[in-house]
Amino acid sequence: MENHFEIVEIKEQVLADNDKAAEENRRMLSENGTVLLNLMGSPGAGKTSTVLEIVKRLGRKYRIGVMEADADGDTDAKTVAETGTKVIQIHTGGLCHMDADMTRRGLQALGIRDLDLVILENVGNLVCPAEFEVGADLRVMILSVPEGDDKPLKYPLMFQISDCLLISKTDTKAVFDFDEASASARALKLNPGLSVFPVSARTGEGYEAFCRFLDERLQAARKGGSAT
Are 38 and 140 in contact (CB under 8 A)? Predict the structure, then answer.
């Protein structure tokens, strides 16, 4: 006797529901004139250091808020708070990414009415954050020199969905076997429109150019255009 049963594609439905929620976030942010930057990368890649560089270089020109997402702990939020920047800590309960609904709740807790730019420092991971839209205007990923230049080959989706790639910790290239040209070429093959900036929080290299890139997109958003 033939069995009849329904096959439910859970992942497809979850992602479809998430995409709908992400569009609602995008509309809410747009109506308020706020740009959301989704900052992604592995643990230790330099996400918090990049947040601090953005605040230092653009904090006088733009009202900035930060959402720090982690499975647990509040170390990064405390670090950002020391700059006087508006910040909240989000605990994901062990989840390896932020989704659109968690982002919405974070935005509501942070309060966006008086903010030009919100930076979401996503959970340290090169897989899950790439799959879940949060409603961001800009998606910036960080690849650190110690991680190796082969990561575009191993985690292609992260490079494909990002608007900007920061190659961080360039001051350690003499120590690690990292081919910056190969890393950039592999990333650009996946995403020809990707903007690439080699940076170092230790020396400050590259952050002026990156923040100029970010400033241009924030100005475009202020004029009613797209930040991407």
Answer: yes
Question: Using CA atoms in the order 166, 171, 177, 179, what is the torsion angle rounded to 10 degrees?
Answer: 50
Give the model confidence (pLDDT) of 158-202 as tens digits: 999 999 999 999 999 999 999 999 999 999 999 999 999 999 999
CB atoms within 10 A of CB 177: 8
For domain 14-218, give the fold. Rossmann fold (3.40.50)
175 contact partners, CB below 8 Å, separation of at least 6: none
> CA 122 to CA 154: how far, in whole Å?
20
Estimate the crossing angle of helix 100-110 against helix 10-32, to 10 degrees. 30
As a whole number of angstroms, the distance between CA 160 and CA 134 comes to: 16
Ramachandran angles phi, psi of 91, nearest 5°: -100, 125
207-222 helix and 47-58 helix, angle to the nearest 10 degrees = 60
- What average pLDDT does the chain have? 92
Q: Could you read off the pLDDT of 25-73 as tens digits, one per residue?
A: 999 999 999 999 999 999 999 999 999 999 999 999 999 999 999 878 8
Q: Where are the domains of the chain?
A: 14-218
**What's the pLDDT at 93?**
81
Residues 206, 171: contact at Cβ < 8 Å? no
Residue 158: strand, helix, or coil = helix
Q: Which residues, other chains included, contact 72 with Cβ-Cβ below 8 Å and sequence gap of 6+?
A: 91, 94
Strand partners, 88: 67
Radius of gyration of the chain (CA): 18
